[in-house]
């Protein structure tokens, strides 16, 4: 094998074609609603972590569990990167008609790109939160919220943070 590129070979690098069964695919016996996605701080230094909170509400008639998934997208990068990358997930049980506020940390190292060494780069990023991948069409409807944040400073090796 001479071509080690991952393009077209894993769900992270599929072009416009969606995988048949994307990560998080499945059925539920209830419905959920996502709201109040908050990123803090919305502008952070290159080596800082991002705090994320989101509210998950069970709008159905049955108690159930949802796998809340966070995906990160680089808006611009100096090297090829995935369309989006799973950076956190959590299975949460929510009673019918109730809600849960969830908190996550997205570490600086999760934004690192490989350019002969793991590097952190400034720029604009989009974070997605929901019960499925962004843009997924093969599952029962589920909201996927998104919010942008910016990273300031100069590019630097991850090991220097």
Q: What are the key terms here?
A:
Immunoglobulin-like; mainly beta; globular; 46% strand; 161 residues; 11 strands
What does this structure look like?
The protein has 161 residues and is mainly beta. Helix content is 0%, strand content 46%. It is built from no helices and eleven strands. The protein has strands at 32-40, 43-45, 50-58, 64-74, 85-94, 99-106, 113-114, 118-120, 123-130, 144-152, 156-157. The strands form three sheets. It has a five-stranded mixed beta sheet, with no helix packed on it. A three-stranded antiparallel beta sheet has the order 1-3-6, with no helix packed on it. A three-stranded antiparallel beta sheet has the order 7-8-11, with no helix packed on it. Strand 7 (113-114) and strand 8 form a beta hairpin. This is beta-glucosidase. Keywords: Hydrolase. Its EC number is 3.2.1.21.
Query: Can you tell me the residue ranges where pLDDT is under 50 for at least 5 consecutive residues?
Result: none
The CATH first-level class comes to Mainly Beta
Which architecture does the CATH hierarchy give at level 2?
Answer: Sandwich
Q: What does the radius of gyration come to?
A: 17 Å
* Number of DSSP helical runs: 0
Shape: globular
CATH domain fold name: Immunoglobulin-like
**Structural class assignment:** mainly beta
Q: What sequence of helices (H) and strands (E) makes up the elements?
A: EEEEEEEEEEE
For the record, give the distance between the C-alpha atoms at the N and C termini, rounded to a whole number: 36 Å
Please report which band the strand proportion falls in: under 5%, 5-15%, 15-25%, 25-35%, 35-45% or over 45%.
Answer: over 45%
Question: Main sheet: which strands, in order across?
Answer: 2-10-9-4-5
Give the overall average pLDDT: 87
| Count of separate structural domains | 1
Give a quick account of the main beta sheet: strands, pairing sense, barrel closure.
Answer: 5 strands, mixed
Q: What name goes with the CATH superfamily? A: Immunoglobulins
**Helix amount, in percent?**
under 10%
Number of strands: 11
Catalytic activity: Hydrolysis of terminal, non-reducing beta-D-glucosyl residues with release of beta-D-glucose
GO biological process, one term: carbohydrate metabolic process
Pfam families: Fn3-like (PF14310)
Enzyme class: hydrolase
């Amino acid at each position: 094998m001479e071509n080690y590129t991952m393009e077209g070979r894993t769900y992270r690098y599929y072009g416009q074609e969606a995988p048949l069964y994307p990560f998080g695919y499945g059925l539920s016996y209830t419905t959920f609603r996502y709201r109040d996605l908050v990123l803090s701080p919305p502008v952070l230094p290159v080596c800082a972590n991002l705090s994320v909170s989101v509210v998950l509400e069970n709008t159905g008639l049955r108690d159930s569990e949802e796998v809340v998934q966070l995906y990160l997208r680089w808006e611009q990068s100096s090297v090829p990167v995935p369309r989006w990358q799973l950076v956190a997930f959590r299975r949460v049980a929510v009673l019918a008609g109730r809600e849960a506020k969830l908190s996550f940390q997205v570490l600086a190292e999760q934004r690192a790109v490989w350019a002969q060494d793991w590097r952190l780069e400034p720029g604009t990023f989009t974070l997605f939160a929901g019960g499925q991948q962004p843009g997924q069409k093969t599952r029962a409807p589920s909201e996927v919220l998104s919010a942008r944040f910016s990273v300031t400073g100069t590019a630097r090796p991850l090991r220097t943070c």
